[in-house]
């Protein structure tokens, strides 16, 4: 583990506690991408679905038919907001405070996993995706929606400088999905532009 790792996790909890009351006004802008990503995941109503780094639960609107939903997030204020949204929607969600890099679930617990705007936020995205792989049943699917550097590309100076600010505020903009994926045995079966000239992508992975 990198020496700064515990500090970065604490920073995430602190800043997302600060953002929780206004989060929906910003992240609500991604409704189209959420709908598309969950349509690609195509969870059957009885499948066990896990939302990792679930935030205030903006994805719940697209998972109304699910009967076995679990959502985890590092930030208690986010989990509280998600639980309130679930109650408002009449959805039974097992919502827990948990670190995405150390999931407290047995191996092969879930059929499908939602990873929206989280791989670019956690300090160690490989640890996060490896945990998702572990808790996923064989043949299970993962949908990823996030901002990535194109596979194989190197960030220019402007993007590296911009990333200093982006990381301070919320998120890393210079991660490559292929690099994160290479550390697992998950297979990418679909990848599409999700806006801003390919800056945002939606990918479907299978175990
Ligand atoms: C950009 S928000 C995305 C929230 C939600 N997935 C969405 O699409 O709106 C990032 C979320 O990741 C959570 N988070 C950050 N580090 C985490 C970690 N190590 N484990 C679990 N959640 C984490 C934050 O608390 C925040 O709710």
TrEMBL record:
Lineage: Bacteria, Pseudomonadati, Pseudomonadota, Betaproteobacteria, Neisseriales
A Pfam match: Methyltransf_11
GO biological process terms, semicolon-separated: methylation
Protein name listed in UniProt: Phosphatidylethanolamine N-methyltransferase
Keyword field: Methyltransferase, Transferase
Ranges of residues in domain Methyltransferase type: 52-144
Gene Ontology MF: a single term: S-adenosylmethionine-dependent methyltransferase activity
SUPFAM superfamilies membership: S-adenosyl-L-methionine-dependent methyltransferases (SSF53335)
Source organism per UniProt: Crenobacter luteus
InterPro entries hit by this protein: Methyltransf_11, Methyltransf_Superfamily, SAM-dependent_MTases_sf
Highest taxon of the lineage: Bacteria
């Amino acid at each position: 583990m990198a020496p700064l790792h515990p500090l970065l996790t604490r920073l995430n909890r602190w800043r997302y506690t600060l953002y929780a009351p206004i989060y929906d006004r910003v992240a609500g802008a991604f409704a189209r991408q959420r709908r598309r990503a969950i349509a690609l995941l195509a969870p059957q109503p009885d499948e066990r679905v896990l939302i990792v780094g679930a935030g205030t639960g903006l994805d719940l609107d697209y998972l109304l038919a699910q009967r076995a939903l679990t959502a985890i997030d590092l930030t208690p204020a986010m989990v509280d907001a998600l639980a309130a949204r679930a109650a408002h929607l009449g959805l039974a969600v097992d919502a827990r405070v948990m670190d995405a890099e150390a999931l407290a679930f047995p191996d092969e617990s879930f059929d499908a996993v939602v990873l929206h705007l989280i791989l670019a936020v956690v300090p160690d995205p490989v640890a996060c995706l490896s945990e998702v792989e572990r808790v996923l049943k064989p043949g299970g699917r993962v949908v990823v929606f996030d901002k990535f550097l194109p596979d194989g590309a190197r960030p220019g100076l402007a993007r590296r400088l911009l990333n200093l600010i982006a990381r301070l505020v919320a998120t890393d903009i210079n991660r490559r999905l292929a690099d994160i994926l290479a550390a697992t045995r998950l297979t990418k079966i679909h990848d599409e532009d999700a806006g801003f000239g390919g800056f945002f992508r939606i990918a479907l992975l299978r175990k």
